[in-house]
Design a protein that fits this description.
6 helices
C-alpha cells in the first residue's frame, strides 16, 4: 500500500488489538512490519529478542496468545481457539472442514 496507515486500520478493523497483551501486540506489529508479500517472516526467536524487549518465555507466551486468537477467529469464536489448544474442546466436523479448507489439506489430517 502507498501509505503506512493500512497497518493501523487492520489492527482496529479486524479487532486484533481487542483483549491482547502488550507483548502480543508488540510481536504482532513486528511480524506484520517485517513480513514478506505472503505474510511470512524469517526472523528467529533470537533475532526477534534482539529487537523487542521480550525474553524467551515472554516471546513464547505472546506467540501462543496470537495463535490461540487466530485459531478462534478462523473457527468463528474468539475463545474457542484457547479451549481447543488446552484440550478443553475437541474440533467438530465443521471446524475440521474450515481448517482443512483454510490450509488446503485433507480433513483427515485433523483427526
Amino acid at each position: 500500500p502507498p501509505q503506512f496507515s493500512w497497518i493501523d486500520h487492520r489492527l482496529v478493523r479486524d479487532r486484533h488489538i481487542a483483549g491482547r497483551s502488550i507483548e502480543a501486540l508488540a510481536l504482532y506489529l513486528f511480524l506484520v512490519t517485517v513480513a514478506d508479500g505472503q505474510g511470512l517472516s524469517y526472523y528467529s526467536d533470537a533475532g526477534i529478542g534482539k529487537l523487542l524487549p521480550l525474553d524467551g518465555p515472554a516471546l513464547a507466551r505472546a506467540r501462543q496468545e496470537l495463535i490461540r486468537a487466530r485459531l478462534g477467529e478462523m473457527l468463528g469464536n474468539r475463545s474457542l481457539g484457547s479451549k481447543i489448544l488446552r484440550g478443553e474442546r475437541d474440533l467438530s466436523k465443521s471446524h475440521i472442514r474450515v481448517l482443512a479448507k483454510r490450509f488446503n489439506v485433507d480433513p483427515g489430517l485433523f483427526i
